[in-house]
Amino acid sequence: MSDIPLTTSVAGVPEAAAPRQPPALTTGPAAWLRANLFSSWLNTAVTLVLGYFIVRYAISFVDWAFINAIWSVENNQTQACRALKASADPGACWAVITEKHRFILFGTYPYEEHWRPAIVCLLFTGLYIVSAMRRFWRWELAIIWAVTLITIGILMWGGVFGLSYVPQERWGGLPITLILATFGLAFAFPLAILVALGRRSSMPAIRVLCIAYVELIRGVPLISLLFMASVMFPLFLPEGLNIDKLLRAQVAVILFAGAYLAEVVRGGLQALPKGQYEAAEALGLSYWQKTGFIILPQALRLVIPPLVNTFIGFFKDTSLVLIIGIFDLLTAGKTAIVEPAWQGFGVEVYIAISVIYFIYCFAMSRYSQNLEAELNRHRVR
Amino acid sequence: MSAALDTETHIASSIRADAPPAILLDKVNKWYGSMHVLRDISLQVATGERVVVCGPSGSGKSTMIRCINRLEQHQEGRIVVDGTELTDDVRALDAIRREVGMVFQSFNLFPHLTILENCTLAPIWVRHMPKKEAEELAMHYLTRVKIPDQARKYPGQLSGGQQQRVAIARALCMKPKIMLFDEPTSALDPEMIKEVLDTMVGLAEDGMTMICVTHEMGFARQVADRVVFMDRGEVVEQGAPEQLFSNPSTERLQTFLSQILRGH
């Protein structure tokens, strides 16, 4: 009986059908245009109208941003910029970036020492790139992280190796954003995994604790957490003991990100078939072996897209620290245009800052797509 | 269907009456909510004995077999496996799970690990076997289930029958004293059932203590020392396969057999 389907399926295959080319006009750019843009009179009309607006605004943006733009001015003399801005054919005043880029990037950090935060930004970026490469995914990576972070601390604070001491109040700009995001996610992610596991624990006390944490933190805006960290928290501390403001904001960010990431991770844990848990248990693996070898590797792969989504969200949410007076990239940009000579050139500054945020976020997004494809190779036959 | 399974000749029994019972269930009861799914189940399996459990779906046979390595918890009665009673004691449970291998209906291979890694994970981490030794052991059992050449592939690249044979090899790599099979062929296409059953027959010939939930009556005839018929959470009838299949003494078993046989 078992032979029957086999023979029929073999007999059903025609012998050596010669491969043919696909019919003309179903492939190639002309066919693509016809299928997607001009398939009916309505689609043709929509295509033409949208095409008109896109071309028109693209042309005026290029005019504004590049052709008419002023790239530098002498001695803060911004009259030319203002005249251009008011003219019928306006242009961007990139001079504000040329003039203020160091303040935007490094805030109030002492001007002569700007090389230090510059190296810090490069170190952070290098750290991201090294961590992203799978061939470096081994335990030595933890040492690389520790050494890099210590170096970053030494460079920012100074006070040793002949570097002058720079108090934390004077730090600002991109390094602050990268510090908050890196430490925030590096601590929030393991915390989130533990909380997600705890929410599914069979021990009621642990489960209740984890649920309370997630619900409490998720129920309040990040801004109010930051306020609590900067205003209320010091009131509870004994006289004379003062924890660094950046550190307090950092803890608030970690707790906040942890609650959100925990729910994402929990989604992955729940999506895993029950059979995987049972097979691991039946083999006699302990709880942590089961979790570490079987459950988490699969659960985390499943949630790479929402995980990176949350990462990107938090990278940008670090800009909320401006409300407690910490000088991150966005705050530094805002402050740069307070000076009377440069007032009114916010658009240029915000575009420049957006480009920096975009580079980091887009890199994360592309990398996650890559990682997803790579790690899910085992699902492809 | 299982043509090459030789249903005419029963393979020699390997029951060792001198040894203590491998598994003992004593008046085991279990409820899901208010539903009484296991009712006073008492069953004793000798070392080397091969027991086939059959019964209509929802009769509690899977639940019973899953209670033996505590994937489900019973609420009343005693379960003793290899001399150790199943309690809330985690150490006792770990000890039992090391000695009891399980094969699931849906294979439950770990899709992110290769076939070889699937087989070596537990020996390395639970039995603390050196990696090289574990790999040799895994290759030995993969050869036995006739798929050594697939060792570097991932489960998703294998057919259902091959996956189930890997699952058997994975369980065997822990060198268990007892093997539990929970409907191992129910999720397979007909042409793949035989290759899995052949593997199981081979295992039976080696004298492994086995409990197998299955509807494969040919397999039961050839391999089982005893067939246990369950219905509505109870053991209704049990005995040697020939006697049970040719002379069912209860109406419930008669009905069940006629339904099963009509399907063949």
From TrEMBL, chain A:
Q: Does the keyword Transcription regulation apply?
A: no
What are the record keywords, sorted? Cell membrane, Membrane, Transmembrane, Transmembrane helix, Transport
According to the record, the segments passing through the membrane are 41-59, 114-130, 142-166, 172-197, 209-237, 249-269, 349-367
Q: Mostly located where?
A: membrane
UniProt-listed Pfam families = BPD_transp_1
- What InterPro entries does the record tag this protein with? AA_ABC_transptr_permease_3TM (IPR010065), ArtM/GltK/GlnP/TcyL/YhdX-like (IPR043429), MetI-like (IPR000515), MetI-like_sf (IPR035906)
**Where in this chain does the record put each ABC transmembrane type-1 domain?**
174-368
Family membership noted in the UniProt record: Belongs to the binding-protein-dependent transport system permease family. HisMQ subfamily.
Q: What's this protein's name?
A: Amino acid ABC transporter permease
* Originating organism: Pararoseomonas baculiformis
TrEMBL record, chain B:
Q: Which residues cross the membrane?
A: none
Task: List, alphabetically, the SMART domains matched.
Answer: AAA (SM00382)
What GO MF terms are annotated? ATP binding
- UniProt keyword annotation of Transmembrane helix present: no
Q: Where is the ABC transporter domain?
A: 23-257
Query: Which key words tag this protein in UniProt?
Result: ATP-binding, Nucleotide-binding, Transport
Instruction: Give the family from UniProt.
Output: Belongs to the ABC transporter superfamily.
What this protein is called in its record is: Amino acid ABC transporter ATP-binding protein
The source organism is Pararoseomonas baculiformis
